[in-house]
Amino acid sequence: MAPTTVGELREAVRRAAEEGLRVKAVGTGHSFTAAAATDGVLIRPQALRGITSIDRTAGTVTVAAGTVLKDLNVALARESLSLTNMGDIMEQTVAGATSTGTHGTGRDSASIAAQIRALELVTADGRLLACSEKENPEVFAAARLGIGALGIVTSVTFAVEPLFFLTAREEPMGFERVTAEFDEHVAENEHFEFYWFPHTGNCNTKRNNRSQGPAAPPGAVSAWVEDELLSNGLFQVVNSLGRAVPATIPAIARVASRALSARTYTDIPYRVFTSPRRVRFVEMEYALPREHVVEALRELKAMVDRSPLRVSFPVEVRTAPADDITLSTASGRETAYIAVHMYRGTPYQAYFTAAERIFTAHEGRPHWGKVHTRDAEYFARVYPRFGEFTALRDRLDPDRLFGNDYLRRVLGA
After folding, report:
1. What does the alpha-carbon distance between residue 193 and residue 274 come to, in Å, rounded to a whole number?
2. CB contact set of 121 (below 8 Å; sequence gap of 6+)
3. What pTM did the predictor assign?
4. Could you give the maximum distance between any two Cα atoms of the chain, in Å?
5. pLDDT score at 222
6. CA–CA separation, 103 vs 61, rounded Å?
7. Alpha-carbon distances of 171 from 46, 220, 317, rounded to whole Å
8. 152-159 and 60-64 as β-strands: parallel, antiparallel, unpaired?
9. Cβ neighbours of residue 297 under 8 Å, at least 6 residues apart?
10. What is the pLDDT of residues 50-104, one digit of tens each?
11. Which of 165, 264, 351, 367 is the Cys-Cys partner for 213 at CB 3.0 to 4.6 Å?
């Protein structure tokens, strides 16, 4: 169902509980896991959307949970406001993105969930629970990233700031250099990330830092060549060829990894942080202690180099500061992320299994919305506050109204 008011949503939850049905909310379906799957009532909250209030004195904006991040970013820009940090796509709803831990890259600024200052959620008994650091703080500590296990989020209050400019510098760089200089790049840039192209020693780096402006976006021709022709159109073609003839992938990778050239541009944040992603893929991403990421990445490269695997998608590396959210992948530790991808329709299990073995050896935490095979026993080891979350779940949803098979696996019964 698609409720048009919070009252309708609360009534749907109460009715489902009376009828013995499970309830789940689903956003735009971006997750690769079955976090939102249900055999009961599926709530589509997209009608609950838009900014409901702006508090410029407090530096916050309250937005309905079904709002798509793209619409939020555009609306904030019209108000000369911006989130501090964001991921590299913006097709998710705010509730879906925060509940699964969507993040970008940042030396000092963390995930989207870490920018939440308050939220409201409908609990299993149909109550509308307001949460912040002052109101129901123990729920707030967990519900900012709740994987849908604690209730259905109806609104989110984000910290925002006056609109600013970012200057992006994209530059090809060799694998050995970028890994040797990784800590230096992270320390010197507000936002640093890079992509390594398997079967090559080539990477593409991106550094985003605040600037005074003015806006100087890529020219129309340059943007089309880099973002549409190379990153989407040609990339689609070469992945299709690689899927049909896997033996061609290493040669294609060597050419593709040299196709992107250095460029610098300046624009408002969401136009720099995000980019169009039209080539479909399957993804696994793990959060590692930042001090382990270079070693793990070198192990991943060595594994690919000595294996018969043929990997046509680049590997993405990003960072995040420690945060205080109970089940955040960056909870309590400085973090770096390694994301591996395979083109949709290409067998991915062997690659992901080998990669996951490396990541878990370094106490990695998988992204809650991306492919992984971990269970509650594993998470209890790598999340010091895991028991705190499950105890809260027992209190808020003892009958598992919001449960499903995925939550049973990752959180326990």
Report:
1. 13
2. 128, 129, 131, 139, 143, 146, 150, 151, 152, 153, 154
3. 0.94
4. 61
5. 55
6. 19
7. 38, 19, 15
8. antiparallel
9. 179, 196, 315, 317, 338
10. 999 999 999 999 999 999 999 999 999 999 999 999 999 899 999 999 999 999 9
11. 165
